[in-house]
Amino acid sequence: MRAPLGSFDNARPAPECLDELTTPVANAVRHWRGSVPAEQFVYVDTDPEIADTAVFAEHYGPELLDQSANCVVVSGKRGGESSLAACLVLSGARVDVNGVVRRQLGARKASFAPMDTATGETGMEYGGITPIGLPEEWPVLVDAAVLDVPYVLVGSGRRRGKLIVPGKAFAELPGAVVIEGLGVAAG
């Protein structure tokens, strides 16, 4: 199979390689019920040493910078209560944590979750967190721009490997909230 973007040697439909994914991601792919069939989710095997977006795009194709999205875990706090959410923005943008995210979560303060919290709560590896397979009670804030990209490269739950998913599928994730302006130009 040829990947819909990038220059990958090993690309397969994600449902055929569930053993390459973390348990929560594999379960989400296995039980996917969105309008985009899970068979259109493509798993590509990649080198975990070059998982970070800029280095990754240098190796697998510079066009990937415009077709990749980053998923980050954020923590919102109000009073003594804390809640977690995920944010998905195109890789050329940064998450507006102190503005859009804080307001969306109804939090007094919002920040990126510590690495051990992000990995512990998701069951995914740092550098590979993906919006697919997150805890169902979490809001998954998706920048509207992600939905406009035909195929989006995201993490697979591990540093090794990535998923290529039709952009419109992210609006159908459990807990998805599509937001204009979640991602702002990185600067």
Automatic annotation (TrEMBL):
CDD domains found in the cross-reference section: PA2301 (cd04939)
Cited InterPro entries: YbaK/aa-tRNA-synt-asso_dom_sf (IPR036754), YbaK/aa-tRNA-synth-assoc-dom (IPR007214)
All residue ranges annotated as the YbaK/aminoacyl-tRNA synthetase-associated domain in the record: 48-171
Highest taxon, organism lineage: Bacteria
PANTHER family attached to this UniProt entry: CYTOPLASMIC PROTEIN (PTHR30411)
Protein name listed in UniProt: YbaK/EbsC family protein
